[in-house]
Amino acid sequence: MHLRGRSSGRTSSAKSGPEEIERADEGLTDLDRRTWDVFASLTNVRYLDLASLHTLKGPEYEYVRQNPAVLFPGVTDLRLLGWTHRGLVRSIFSSIDATKLRSLRLDYLNDEGSLPDGRPMSDDTNNEHSCLHRHGSLGSRQSQMISPELQERQETGQAFLFPGPMWYPMHLLTTPTARPLSSLKHLQVKIPRVHHYTDTRLYETIFRATADLVSKASATLMTLVIVLGEHDNIYKPKGPGQCGTTHMRHVHEYVPFYIRSAAAFLGYILRAPDAHAYPRLETLMFERFTIIEQASERDAAQANLDETWELIKSSRWYNKAGGFTKVPSVDHRRIYHGCDEYRQDLSGFGDTWETS
């Protein structure tokens, strides 16, 4: 059985007459509230393509987070897309048999983030409190990742969880107690374009977690696709009417950050394939690392790209992947920074955000 769906907090009715249209904005219907019951009954689904692209308000937030503990246990071919919460991802990955998972595609998957009490984090809250962890020195020896201790506090409601690229699925599949990925043949990981307002620890963590996942599946992988989102503005010169300050910030702050991010991710990924045999690998694709090749002399020096190029050219996969930096592909998808709720009440959390 195949299931292709979009999780939006609302289930489409077979009927869509005037009454249903009139009630479309009145919140959850009785039919909507049966969504999780229906999903929980789909135990024979083998192919799951689930996109979570919702914009919810009020009580709908709570319902979306009330997913069953067991979901889609029979899945062997899985694709997740969009932004979602950890509870849903945890239910899916703790339910499936990892030894039978044949194909995994994580396409621009974002963590919605959450407050310690489980509510989704708003864009305003994220922008205000994630500032302590922005513009980190990605790829450096001093780089920070989400520590096991912080993850434990996030799981137990003792820390904020900031929105950003979701590394959680890789973590669940590569923990010491996780089952082997003995059937995984096709792996595709597409990471959203980096953004200067996102907690940079999330990037470092997902880069490392992706490399760990690639390494764990090395014995069976036949196809490996790695994509890092590129900004369209890295290809655009300053145009007429563009703010000079914005342009200078783009040139001297944002672009160097994008370059460091791409170099850090490529470094993690290239070290993983070179450390294992990959006897069955037939297709290897890297996309959106062109910014490394286009870096100016100044930016290359700041990002220590000499080390990156040495790693690229010494890799046994260099020719097969077309040079790693040759395939541009601009990502126009929305970068998720949090929900639209304004002025969230944070009075009960004290200084928790400072240790998050």
The major sheet is characterized as: 8 strands, mixed
| Amount of helix | 25-40%
The coarse silhouette is globular
N-C termini distance: 41 Å
Which stretches are poorly predicted, pLDDT < 50 over at least 5 residues? 6-25
Output the radius of gyration.
Answer: 21 Å
- Fraction in beta strands: 5-15%
By secondary-structure content and strand pairing, the structural class works out as: alpha/beta
By DSSP, the count of extended strands is 8
Total tally of structural domains: 1
SSE string: EHHEHEHEHHEHEHEHEHHH
Mean pLDDT: 83
Number of separate helices = 12
Describe this structure in words.
It is a single chain. The chain has 356 residues and is of the alpha/beta class. It has one domain (2-355). 33% of the residues lie in helices and 13% in strands. The protein contains 12 helices and 8 strands. Strands 1, 2, 3, 4, 5, 6, 7 and 8 form an 8-stranded mixed sheet that branches. The two termini are 41 Å apart.
In short:
This protein is α/β, with parallel strands linked by helices and 356 residues long. It has helices at residues 18-22, 35-41, 59-64, 86-95, 123-129, 148-155, 168-174, 200-216, 244-274, 290-294, 297-302, 305-314, and strands spanning 2-7, 47-52, 77-84, 103-111, 164-165, 186-191, 223-228, 283-287.
